[in-house]
Amino acid sequence: MTRRLAVPLLLLALAVAALAQLSVGTSVGPLDALLALFGAGGELNLTIVGELRLPRMLVALGTGACLGLGGVVLQAVLRNPMASPEVTGVGSGAVLGAVAATVFGLAGTAAGLTAAAIMGGVLGGAALWLIASRAGADPLRLVVLGVLVSAVLAGLSLVLLTARPQLAGAAARWLVGSLNGRTWEHWHALWPWLLLVTLVLALVAPALDLLAVDDDHAKAVGLAVPPWRMLALLGAVLATAASVAAVGAVAFVGLLAPHAARLLTGAEHRLLLPSAGIAGAACVCGADFLAQAVTLLVPASGSQRIGVPVGAVTALAGAVVLIVVARRFSSALAGRD
User: Does the pLDDT at position 155 exceed 90?
Assistant: First the structure.
């Protein structure tokens, strides 16, 4: 398969995953949901699809695209195939910011919540950067430090929740990402950030090819490394924070999507970035389809049905990929030695 077919294949996978997510449910069947998407069918079907399922699908698309883009940038700038928002402190920092805003009553608006998530993401990324600058830039050590920083930030989120236990239910979705209850309000808060991140990363895409090699090579061809690196990291933090503010921590999509896209398109970032964004969107839509399908199979408890969060599905799949990537990376380092 040539690389020219990679993007069309990813777009086809995205269309299938998005339509599957849109069609799952008991009140409106797949064919009626598809007809309602194009404005045909009864009033009830149009309301369910237009007001409930369509915004949920769009939020899933935007969230997945943000995480895919953020993962590619982190892997390039840190020169580490295991880097992702979950193992660099950025994701946990964004969650901490969202939880803090919820606990202290600052999450009244989507803009305020997103600002808190961004500050948390910057805090998490800066903490890892400072620790890594003292401990050395060994890739495996960086991942271990990132996991530790993420664990500390996650612990702080739990401490905040124990201080206000009455908010634990409302704030729990930040810890395990969920698309339940996502509406047009969440989509309208998400898409401007997705657009901004896309523009920023389109600007830094050529520089990412150089930053992914080494600083000396980048400087030799005339690239001013510090400002381009900071701009790229800012794009990754904004992408991660926007996704967390929309749905919470959807684990490992920032790891899955870049590796899937890289297998199909190669390492050139002008093609890898959009491919990873599409792969991330397809990943979240597909995971939400599975989560909703499993939820329908679980017997309801009284009048309530236990919903499986999309973050649980991506965490299970991502953990397997993380183990595979870590084993390959360790083997490569051992062979180099």
Answer: no
Residue type present at position 151: A
Cα gap 28→44, rounded to integer Å: 9
pLDDT digits (tens, 9 = 90+) for 283-322: 999 999 999 998 888 766 665 666 788 888 888 887 777 7
Distance CA 269, CA 129 (A): 23
Determine the pLDDT at residue 182. 87
pTM above 0.85, yes or no: yes
